[in-house]
């Protein structure tokens, strides 16, 4: 097999290339450790419009991986990334078509940037390369490469959900997008539902079904070790001391309307109402780093959460107890692992998610002799393989309340039984197995004539 060529919207920053901190870089760590590899994508930098004709691909090599990046202009970033990828495709794929704000101009910028990626990547390709393209930002890239004469096997993986055709067709040009996806030799999605939705769309558009299920995982051994070691970290010890022996609930989510955060706060408020015996005797820490803060929907969501946290704390708090500890800044991964280890319950309640690796990280972080309880939304991609969590409908505040009460009063024997049934799947489907399975399938494809 030749090189693995990874293409994504964003390439890891230089500081994260040797020690990946999260996201796609962690998931691909094993795949990128073998042989010579190329990772191509946006640098994260924006340049003035007048400089775009002069831009070149920047090359940096770390060990066996060559990182190749290009800059985007301000208008390309706005139209391709902010408006079309995250203002149209993201809400649509998360079943929130009502939040789309479509213009044909943004669609044209989206297509132009995909064409730019193809043109800049083409000279870097070598015979025998396997090309693996990632996520919704780059749906049309495979076809753009084929149009330039690329015959190498090209795979595509979608990390977020894919909606049913009845919803997908709300996107102007959806049929063209589906037909362009035929350029990929292998298409991977997180769940059976997502693959079925995409294949139904292919069928309607007269295209051969190619979507397959490749559920993504974590590196459980590494994360479990981080969690154990994290207990000795000064800031984890500080958190533990502040708990004063109280049961500890944790939620960790990027600020996004797909994560069900307003609904989660309502569920926690219902928990305090329905089970007043827990007032003053439990600590709930919600960590929600702000993302896409300049987008109106995200700004409004943050205002809603700020207001809800303030109202709940004002109504239920006391001079020596704050019902919700609410952080909007990121917390380093090694600290999160220790925080998970301390937590008696984790709230993972998205309205819709591709997989949700927080659920798997929480299970990996637990002490099997005295584990905490995972409360998980039915609509997380991880739910079908984690049925021994307490599964809830995030739209039902009382159901979240009941699950919290059950988690905090559950006997140790039941907690251990549930964890012992969850643990094997977390260890079986890992980031490494996900990458190996996908690359193996792609490598098996016969090179196009």
From TrEMBL:
A single BP term in Gene Ontology: trehalose biosynthetic process
Top-level taxon of the source organism: Bacteria
InterPro entries, A to Z: Glyco_trans_20 (IPR001830)
Any Pfam family matching the protein: Glyco_transf_20
GO molecular function, one term: alpha,alpha-trehalose-phosphate synthase (UDP-forming) activity
Similarity field: Belongs to the glycosyltransferase 20 family.
Name of the protein in its database record: Alpha,alpha-trehalose-phosphate synthase
Organism phylogeny: Bacteria, Pseudomonadati, Pseudomonadota, Alphaproteobacteria, Acetobacterales
UniProt gene name: ostA
């Amino acid at each position: 097999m030749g090189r693995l060529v990874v293409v994504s919207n964003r390439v890891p920053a230089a500081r994260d290339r040797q020690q990946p901190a999260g996201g796609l870089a962690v998931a691909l760590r094993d795949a990128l450790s073998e042989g010579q590899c190329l990772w191509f994508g946006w640098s994260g930098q924006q340049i003035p419009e007048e400089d775009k004709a002069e831009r070149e691909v920047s090359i940096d090599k770390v060990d066996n991986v060559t990182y190749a990046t290009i800059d985007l202009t301000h208008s390309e970033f706005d139209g391709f990334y902010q408006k079309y990828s995250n203002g149209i495709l993201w809400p649509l794929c998360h079943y929130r078509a009502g939040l789309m704000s479509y213009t044909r101009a943004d669609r044209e910028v989206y297509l132009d940037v995909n064409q730019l990626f193809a043109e800049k990547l083409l000279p870097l390709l070598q015979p025998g390369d396997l090309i693996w393209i990632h996520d919704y930002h780059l749906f049309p890239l495979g076809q753009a490469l084929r149009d330039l004469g690329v015959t190498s096997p090209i795979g595509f993986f979608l990390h977020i959900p894919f909606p049913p055709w009845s919803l997908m067709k709300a996107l102007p040009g959806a049929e063209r997008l589906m037909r362009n996806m035929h350029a990929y030799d292998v298409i991977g999605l997180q769940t059976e539902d997502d693959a079925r939705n995409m294949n139904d769309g292919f069928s309607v558009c007269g295209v051969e079904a190619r979507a397959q299920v490749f559920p993504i995982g974590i590196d459980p051994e590494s994360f479990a070790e981080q969690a154990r070691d994290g207990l000795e970290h000064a800031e984890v010890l500080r958190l533990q001391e502040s708990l004063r022996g109280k049961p500890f609930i944790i939620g960790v989510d990027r600020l996004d309307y797909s994560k069900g955060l307003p609904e989660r706060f309502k569920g926690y408020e219902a928990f305090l109402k329905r089970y007043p015996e827990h007032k003053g005797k439990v600590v709930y820490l919600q960590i929600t780093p702000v993302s896409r803060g300049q987008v109106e929907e995200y700004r409004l969501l943050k205002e809603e959460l700020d207001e809800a946290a303030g109202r709940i704390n004002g109504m239920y708090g006391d001079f020596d107890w704050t019902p919700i500890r609410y952080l909007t800044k990121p917390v380093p991964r090694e600290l999160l692992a220790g925080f998970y280890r301390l937590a008696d319950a984790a709230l993972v309640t998205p309205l819709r998610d591709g997989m949700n690796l927080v659920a798997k990280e929480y299970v990996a972080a637990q002490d099997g002799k005295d584990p905490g309880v995972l409360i998980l939304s039915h609509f997380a991609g991880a739910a079908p393989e984690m049925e021994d969590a307490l599964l809830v409908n995030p739209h039902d505040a009382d159901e979240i309340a009941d699950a919290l009460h059950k988690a905090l009063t559950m006997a140790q024997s039941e907690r251990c039984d549930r964890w012992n049934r969850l643990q094997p799947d977390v260890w079986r489907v890992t980031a490494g197995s996900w990458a190996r399975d996908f690359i193996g399938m792609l490598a098996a494809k016969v090179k196009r004539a």
